[in-house]
Design a protein that fits this description.
four-stranded mixed β-sheet; single chain; alpha+beta; 7% strand; 19 helices; Glutaredoxin
Length: 353
């Protein structure tokens, strides 16, 4: 089973979606026939033909995407299979059309190519990232079959999870898929279940570290907490830069999620401490938490401490921007009108005049 998990995780390693442009391989009519007008038109055609829509999200310059394009353009078996079952469309990840589509459906592209399958009414049926391991006829056909099978596609996974399905392979796939569709609640629940199943003695194994790197986004996850409390051990076992990046990323995911507005001062202090443990300097940490921490202090009726936090941070800022000064004044006055408290920040406000 560990081998299967490792294979799944290897397939989740993200590629750069902002790569430099390379030569695009010309399209032929042998393989998959992609609609060439617009995504809107692809769905209109699908509705008329009563077919689902296959949308490949690719990146210009992505080597894996170029390999996929070459294969699906020239493989007759894959071409016939997809042409019979789907209306197909290719969407460049950074195009205005792609950005609008991703925003509409909360699609977070973690790697390319990203294969997505939709009902004619634009409901997501299945989504998965792909690597060179999937670039072959049997796997692409199996992917198509999985996408249209309501008992196997990713649209069914949340229901299975709620019914109690919790084998490790499933939890990893479900957690990763939840990240791609920005379903933070499901990701956190799946990864909590995964962490709870792991023996604490195994928290340091390569599988769990990969899960932490690629799937976990919650700093309350037990595996994450184990890492920040055992950093020297992880530095000895894995490249230190990978450990640092993993811890920092998860703290920042937790900082910018919607639930952050309800964090207690104790929780904020813990998060700041975790960044300090991996070597992030105090000024940078204060800057990242400035609004969250000061807001929490204002809300807990501690305006003096809130303004102290702001004051100390800006003492370390060289050359306060006028707009920044204006923003801080408006922000602080939204919480207090006490001129005695405000007076210590007047020097910041003046930079906005």
């Amino acid at each position: 089973m560990l081998k299967n998990i490792f294979i799944i995780l290897c397939l989740l390693i993200a590629q750069n979606v902002n790569a430099q442009q390379t030569k695009t391989i010309p399209h032929t009519s042998v393989g998959i026939k992609f609609v060439k007008t617009s995504l809107k038109n692809a769905f209109e055609i699908a509705q008329k033909q009563n077919k689902p829509v296959f949308v490949e999200i690719y990146a210009i310059g992505c080597d894996h995407c170029e390999k996929f394009k070459k294969f699906v353009d020239n493989n007759a078996g894959v071409g016939k299979y997809y042409n019979d079952k789907f209306v197909s469309y290719q969407l460049e990840v950074n195009s205005p059309e792609a950005q609008a589509f991703r925003k509409k459906h909360n699609i977070y592209v973690l790697s390319t190519p990203l294969m997505s399958f939709w009902s004619p009414d634009e409901t997501l049926m299945h989504i998965q990232t792909s690597g060179d391991e999937q670039n072959n006829e049997p796997t692409l056909k199996a992917m198509a079959d999985r996408a249209i099978d309501p008992t196997k596609n990713s649209a069914s996974w949340k229901n299975y999870f709620q019914q109690g399905v919790n084998d490790d392979n499933f939890l990893i796939e479900f957690g990763y898929m939840s990240r791609m569709i920005c379903d933070t609640v499901s990701n956190m629940a799946a990864m909590k279940t995964f962490a709870d199943k792991q023996a604490s003695t195994g928290f340091q194994n390569p599988i769990n570290f990969l899960v932490l790197q690629k799937v976990v986004i919650d700093d309350e996850n037990a595996i994450f907490k184990h890492v920040v409390n055992n950093l020297p051990t992880f530095y000895a076992k894995y490249p230190q830069k990978d450990v640092v990046a993993t811890v920092e990323n998860i703290v920042m995911y937790s900082l910018y999620c919607s639930r952050a507005n309800d964090y207690s001062l104790e929780k904020i202090a813990e998060m700041k401490s975790n960044l300090a443990k991996i070597g992030i300097d105090k000024q940078s940490i204060t800057g990242r938490f400035l609004l969250l921490e000061s807001r929490a202090l204002f809300k807990s009726n501690q305006p003096e401490k809130a303004t102290d936090v702001i004051n100390e941070f800006y003492k370390g800022v060289k050359g306060i921007d006028k707009k920044d000064g204006e923003f801080i004044e408006k922000y602080v006055r939204g919480f207090t009108q006490d001129e005695t408290i405000l007076s210590k920040l007047n020097w910041i406000f003046k930079s906005g005049k």
